[in-house]
Amino acid sequence: MFDCGNDDGKRGFGMRGSARVLTVIALSVAALALCGVASANTGFKGPAYPVGTSGAPTTSKPESKLWFRDGRWWAIMFDQSDVYRIFRLNLRSQHWVNTGVAVDPRDSTRQDVLSVGNTLLVASHKFVKTTHQNPMPGAGDEMRLYRFSYHSGSNTYSPDGQVTIDPQRAEALTIAREAPGKIWATWVQEEGGQHKVFASRTTGDCATGGSCAFGSRIELDGVVGADDISAIVRFGNKVGVMWSDTVSSNLWFRVHTDGDGDTAGDWTPRVSVIGGPKRVDDHINLKADASGRVYAVTKTKFSSAANPGIMLHRRSAAGNWSSHEVTDASFDRTRPIVVLDPQHNAIRVFEGETGSSVFMVKSRLGNINF
What pTM, to 2 d.p., does this model score? Predict the structure, then answer.
């Protein structure tokens, strides 16, 4: 299992090995050699996860499970005692070490992490594939934000409280920070028989020790599909929310500038990133670079080689979107993750293949061409 991430919440995914994986990798290496590309590295197999997760614990596409702090990689994993805990990677042995610090004692939850200095924020929610509004949500069903403090002397984290984001369950929940430290969250939830896109912001500077209490939720879109999701990203002095809308077959994006109010009117009007029949599915993963550009990797509903299967969309600092094919639909790739590598002038997209392998495809940052 592996995830990809950084201090502003890069989103990750995972896989488990099988005999078929080795076969597919061998074939992939042969194909890469014919194209003059370096051989693939199969990496290291991570720990298995037990029952109680309602499927793969990294199944929510926009969420991050991994962060880098104090020269070490850290992750949220579901351990053999059926509790989500903080793990640390031993680089020498390539094994994940259970630190014993519990994150969320509830089973069937999913997490999105955000590391800001010595503060770790973890948004955790009870996972449900299709959300339904519960007029009387049960105890423990709520979306929560956990805060932890990092201690560099002992290389450990300690809990620093929790608050409720929303009383309902969700398919996906992501967070991002507003300067200096207020936290935004976004998710899709049913309300009044219709699925809607919501966002909410903390009333205090949660990232640097202030109040983590969330204010009233804001409706960013009032009509989306039951299986649609949203995701949030920080870029420059703004945060942006993207969501799938399979009702109108559009990917939408709205922007909020740091310091503005917390009503729907304080967000820019929605802009269509891409639209059209079969061009939108509920797979979204977001990143941003130091220049204020936003990158979104998404999945379509096409199935033939004549059409794109995985696409990358880039928003310029001026606010203009461009779209690029990553792999065609005949490869049947899924749950794509985008990782920016400015040191090597590269955009890397990781794609899953149902029941087997994970693949990586690459483009230059400047002239996008996969």
Answer: 0.88
